[in-house]
Amino acid sequence: MLTALFRQRWYPSAFQAAAGLAAVVAVYFGLRPVRHAELNPGAALVWQLWWPVLPFLGVALARAWCAVCPFPWLGDALQRLPGRGRPLAPHFVRGFGPWFAALSLLALGVSFLLFSFESDGRLTAVVLLAFAAMAASTALAWRGRVWCRFLCPLGMLLRLYARLSPFSVRPANEASRGAAVRAAARCPLLTTPVAAERTADCVVCGDCFKAGSRAVVGSFRRPAVPFALEPVEAAAVGAVVGLLLADAFRMTPLYLDYMAAVVSGLGWSYDLALGVALALGVLATLSLQAGIGLLRRGAAFWASFGRLGAVLLPLALALHLALSLQHLTGAPAAFTSVLAEAALVAPGHMPPSDAYGTSLPLKLSQFALVGGALLVGWTLVLRRRQGEGAAVTAGLAVPALAGGFIFWQPMAAAC
Amino acid sequence: MPMTLRFPLWGGVLAALSLGALALAAAGCTGGSSADDGGPPREAYRSEKALRGYQIALRQGELLEQLPCYCGCGQDPVYKNLLDCFLTAPGEFNTHAANCQVCLEEALDADEWRASGLSVADVRERIDARYEGRGTPTETPPVPAGQ
Question: Which of A115, A200, B124, B142 lies deepest, with the highest CB count within 10 Å?
């Protein structure tokens, strides 16, 4: 059924148009003054709905969001303008682009937590406009979707989750491998369905489906969890785990206790205390990874770093899904308030005085996700048997236990 | 490739130590709320703006008491002025304002305008002008003449 969908002429443009309209609505409402800052429809659309849904899309359909994302459409449209042929992206962009994406992902996550994007319509609009501007400017400079493949921070995130997705685009069978390669000649990301890294790079744009008749299919099968990641991917996984732990921590009463102790007890400024909490979350995970890499005598640092990254990848996805479940449970109430406010039918906003709650089904789901990730990661360690089981197990156990401890607490539905 | 279920010893030790550190950190943190020592309540530490709002409520209670709140809390007759969003009684905190941007912005504006030398009546006039229409206001009596 999905394969048939990808062969349709209106795929993915119809979805892109809908997503583009949603982005325009989010920017419009984000920039428009509102009566209650915490009820900005633009920010709610982006952070209460799209952002929590994204990891579920990633695990179900790999990078299919990238096909629906409206920003490459802007770049594609600009590339169709008459003019000289554009060159391929230079080597340094292809080589260091993923590091830019990983650092942008880290910067986006830190900024989100520091400046509370979820209740700031203007900053939300600025982020969306910045993505559009980057996609458009790179499309004007180079051939293909350089932004999507090498530079986009969300592309990096989905590239990681795609490695754990059962969905992939592949040749229909052995006999059609040649036809599948020829069908990919127009691939905007300059990839091919027979490449080993296909699932991570493919944005499921549908071009090879349309060009290759029956040679290419989209199918589900048991994902091949990688034993090792590229260094940049491993660093991104560490940063994502740290950011998610910090974000989850911020949604518990422990955060209030920490801030009260540090701000009133030590006399730190609020921003400093928040920055230290964030740095601890992100740097602790990355330092743990790096430390374990250094401990491994006789093996290359980056190889060990990459192996721990692969072990942490299921945990990153599990933490993201668990946190997204938390956000999605609060979404109906949040959108009721937002819509009432947008329509000016509410006599004002009365937020609940105690925003923390504990839902048993939700907690069980969150523990199941973190526990499942721990098991998958540990299985990887055991199967690999390269003499670094103890250190890598600790590298997996520490953030997983921290995640379990945080999810054990009562949590707010929103940030 | 053979598989064994041998539990890596050092992994277990490190994990146990980490758990212990987390438990200690949590235990150390829980005594941090300063509601009992005259400081803001624990909920005020949700954001910098909330912390400043509660600090203003503790310092400028008489000012906030004379200002209406426009967040919509006027629907509830318990709320009679902006101070009620922060304090239910002297020393007893209301956590409503910690989650409400309008209450916090009103308190911050009022404090800033008062500090700039405006009278209480002028501050109220400005608050009315800026926040009217956000939501059902509290029924706060007018500022007595001369304040």
Answer: A200
